[in-house]
């Protein structure tokens, strides 16, 4: 089946944005040889990339045939950051699958239209009407629905840290796989594609997977667990550095380099790759998230690796020659 016919293209939101980035780069002028090589490597790295590239090119052709003033301005305005942002938004919305790119189960709107959002690489702090403190990690989105009977926070994308205020109304935090009910707790909730990760720093939290048939687990301070829509893992001790992002830090304790780079990649644009030869090297330390380039430089000092930058948006960490 053509993935566009049912409104659900078979490539991720991240890959879609990468395809949009490369298309905009090409429209800004011919790629230099290094950029052309980087684009080719990205394109050939996975069939998902190839599907996204073909899809976004079709979308771009359709947009050029539109009479919309916004489309005309975005496609033909002088090169500028505002033009690039407008074109990027048009490409995403014009794909005929805008909701699918950010859609989570039972959520009718994409994160683009969420009540609160945080851009890639940035964090956002909020105080909710009940006094609860909410912090959004990089590229996160939530809807907040408080009324006279209940308080509901819907995590659409990304990761949040919540310090729940006491209130007679019950508080629920919903993810794609289910719901958690904090009891005057401080918690971290992260949305993955197939599961949700909960970490509890104070108080206690009840976990209710979307399709559960037994008594739900209860997670207390100092514990974390992963749950899917119909199962959960046993609570375990908090990982080292869990929630450190809320203080602007990335903490690693004997972490595989490949996993470390996956985490770092959440806070920067483009593709951050790890060569298989160095993927299992172990790294420990605390790193400020505000300067990912500095972190990459430190890797070359602390590990036998070389950071190869094809462009700002295509970086590979490989074995040092």
User: What is the succession of H and E elements?
Assistant: HHHHHHEEEEEEEEEEEEEHEEHEE
CA radius of gyration: 21 Å
CATH topology-level fold name of the largest domain: Jelly Rolls
What is the assembly state of the chains in this entry? Answer: single chain
CATH-derived architecture of the largest domain: Sandwich
Query: Which shape, going by the Cα principal axes?
Result: globular
CATH class of the largest domain: Mainly Beta
Terminal Cα span: 46 Å
Structure, described:
The protein contains eight helices and 17 strands. The protein has helices at residues 13-27, 33-45, 47-64, 69-76, 81-93, 98-102, 257-265, 292-302, and strands at residues 116-118, 124-127, 133-136, 140-146, 151-157, 159-163, 171-174, 178-191, 196-209, 218-220, 223-227, 236-237, 249-256, 271-274, 282-288, 305-311, 314-319. The strands form three sheets. Strands 1, 2, 3, 4, 5, 6, 7, 8, 9, 10, 11 and 12 form a twelve-stranded mixed sheet that branches. Strands 14-17-16 form a three-stranded mixed sheet. Strands 13-15 form a two-stranded antiparallel sheet. Helix 1 packs across helix 3 (47-64) and helix 1 (13-27) crosses helix 5. The longest helix is centred in the first third of the chain and has 18 residues, at 47-64. Residues 1-8, 77-83 and 95-109 have low confidence and may be disordered.
């Amino acid at each position: 089946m053509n993935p566009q016919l049912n409104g659900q293209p078979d490539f991720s939101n991240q890959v879609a944005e990468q395809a949009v980035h490369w298309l905009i780069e090409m429209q800004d002028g011919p790629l230099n040889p290094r950029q052309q090589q980087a684009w080719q490597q990205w394109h050939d790295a996975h069939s998902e990339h190839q599907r996204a590239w073909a899809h976004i090119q079709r979308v771009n052709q359709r947009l050029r045939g539109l009479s919309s003033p916004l489309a005309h301005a975005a496609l033909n305005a002088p090169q500028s950051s505002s033009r690039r942002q407008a074109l990027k938004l048009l490409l995403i919305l014009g794909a005929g699958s805008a909701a699918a790119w950010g859609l989570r189960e039972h959520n009718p709107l994409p994160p683009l239209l969420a009540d609160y959002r945080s851009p890639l690489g940035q964090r956002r702090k909020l105080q909710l009407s009940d006094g609860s403190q909410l912090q959004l990690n990089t590229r996160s989105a939530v809807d907040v629905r408080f009324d006279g009977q209940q308080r509901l926070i819907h995590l659409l994308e990304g990761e949040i840290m919540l310090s729940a205020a006491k209130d007679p109304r019950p508080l629920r935090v919903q993810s794609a796989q289910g719901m958690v009910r904090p009891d005057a707790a401080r918690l971290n909730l992260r949305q993955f594609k197939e599961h949700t990760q909960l970490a509890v720093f104070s108080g206690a939290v009840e976990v209710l997977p979307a399709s559960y048939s037994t008594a739900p687990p209860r997670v207390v301070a100092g514990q974390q667990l992963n749950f899917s829509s119909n199962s959960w893992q046993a609570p375990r001790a908090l990982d080292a550095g869990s929630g450190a992002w809320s203080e602007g830090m990335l903490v690693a304790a004997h972490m595989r380099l490949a996993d470390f780079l996956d985490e770092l990649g959440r806070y920067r644009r483009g593709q951050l790759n790890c060569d298989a030869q160095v993927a299992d090297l172990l790294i420990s330390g605390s790193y400020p998230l505000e300067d990912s380039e500095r972190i990459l430089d430190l890797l070359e000092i602390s590990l036998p690796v070389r950071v190869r930058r094809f462009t700002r948006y295509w970086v590979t960490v490989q074995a040092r020659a």
